[in-house]
Amino acid sequence: MKKTFLYLLAFTLVYSNCFSQKNAAKEQTKEATQKFDHFAFIDAREIYKELINKGNRSATLLMKLGDSYYYNNDLTNALEWYSELITKYSGNDYESEYLFRYAHTLRSMKLYQKSEEIMETYYKRKGIRTNKRQNLNKVLNRKNKSIIFDDFKYNSIFSDYAPRLCSNTNSLLFVSSRDTIASRVHEWNNQPYSNLYEIEEKNIHKIEGVVNSKYHESTAVYTSNKDTLYFTRNNYYKRKKKKSNDGIIKLKLYRASSKNGGHLNHIEELPFNNDNYSVAHPYLSSDGKKLFFSSDMPGGFGMSDLYVVDIKADGKFGKVTNLGEKINTSGRETFPSLDSNNNLYFASDGHLGLGGLDIFLSKQNKEGLYSTVFNLGSPINTTYDDFSFIYNTYNKTGYFASNRNGGMGSDDIYKFHKSGKSSLNCSNYIKGTIFSSNKQHKISNAKLTLYHNDEAIETIFSDKNGHYKFEIDCFEKYFVRIERKGFLSSQIVVDNSKNYIEDIFLKRGSLLTRINVKYGDDLKNKLQLEKIYFEYNKYTIQKESKIELKKIILFLNKFPNSNIKIQAHTDSRGTFTYNKKLSLKRAKSVQHYIVNAGIAKNRIQIHGFGESRPVINCNDYCSKEDHQKNRRCEFILF
Hints:
The protein is of the alpha+beta class and 638 residues long. It has four domains: 7-140, Tetratricopeptide repeat domain (Serine Threonine Protein Phosphatase 5, Tetratricopeptide repeat), CATH 1.25.40.10; 152-378, Neuraminidase (6 Propeller), CATH 2.120.10.30; 427-506, Immunoglobulins (Immunoglobulin-like, Sandwich), CATH 2.60.40.10; 523-637, CATH 3.30.1330.60. 21% of the residues lie in helices and 28% in strands. The protein has a four-stranded antiparallel beta sheet, with no helix packed on it. β20 and β21 form a beta hairpin. α1 runs antiparallel to α2, α4 (75-88) crosses α5 (97-108) and α5 packs antiparallel against α6. It is globular. The N and C termini lie far apart (64 Å). Residues 2-22 have low confidence and may be disordered.
């Protein structure tokens, strides 16, 4: 893709030419850097290559040469120079962003494991937590067989991207550099400047009015009645171009409107633009009251983030809000769009993907927030750049752009439709019936909470027949917690690759009312907890156990004068000394989790007994199940 990254779409006007016969290599480097800094990458690259051939392989030169390919999306050649940079020089010689770019190029060549290793180094250098990243194999193996590609006859030999369906019409708005004016070729990629086009009744025409200029116009979206257009353009307004402090023409958002059904001749700049950063790729909510966009404005999480702003009844704007770290990463998030269910689609190279930009989906929760991110998988995503996705939920038809092999130009638009009844993100379900433990009664109005990655994402109640149902994504792991007054709470764990049916049986009792406890009691027994288990040779708390620990936390909050001893144990494998240390680590891990939930640390003692107090004293004849029972935690009141 030639024009998707925000900072790649910022362009320059003036180049400096400063040659000297005294020191040719120095002046060549200076000239190449000047061209590079103004995004004239094709010219700069030839000078860098000449310097390389003369034996100059400095870290700076390797970075610049790699970037000259990377920014033109030639990731294969970029990989060569980034690889030499990372292997030849230490981390002090280059910024951490070069690790990110190197990992990006590795993914494009399907070197996923190496890419993940480099990304882990990148995250450590940036101080980014990675414990909630998706499993790589799940993403690589995710294939949506119900996606069927349709013929799209309107691509050119140039770049075509950013399709947008026009409401209440059959027309399609898109961006293209099919401009035939040869003098308007840009030095960055030898492509013409892009304009906005529309397909109506199988005919293509440029958007009429004054929207298209002599500079780049990019992603745009109409309001429902087509009397207003939000669009992206270089910083060119009222026939004046403006540059940032570093001499770059950034991207800005504009609003074009018509009067009395005429052409779009009235243009205004949106108030949250800035000469020193880019704001681009608008998309409107179905009611026209929210505008989503991408920007590299200060204060974000990465190279470009997604934002939303309210559009008021008088046309003015509210406060710009970042969509948060669940959506935005240290990489690039860009090209947002929404479907009729307010599902958010966007392109990213920061979330785990197949390579280049991948397309992701995030569903809106009941609070109106976006959190869990889902990779759409193949065939939508490839090792190339896949972006500017839109989807019509009514006829299950969509469009997106990609620079994958087999297209006509540098970027091409692809059309598809979705067969079958499942949702685009490969949706399965968990469903069943809730019974009393003796199976004599079906339990209505039980509260069921669905958890994903330790986050509560949905709450429902069983119906009058005890039935419940959750829609869930394929290949993800979930927990469901069940609560009902007069019954002990319970939970189920689902690691699904198909629809999952689970009947639930609740025991009568009460968790924290009229509970009879005394010093020396184990809360695990009193609160009827599932055992807190650990995997062999590990002290990380398993996700299933975190649900049980929340019951401990609830007890400690309800009874603030109570204190507990956490007693951790191991199985008999390993040496006595090693097991002692491991059990103490397990106790500390549990203590840390409880303290992080707001319980004072001085209310919790920890003890590690190693293998000295087994539940099953089987010595060298323990089964796998016996060993697991011995790896446990106890919570003793004192």
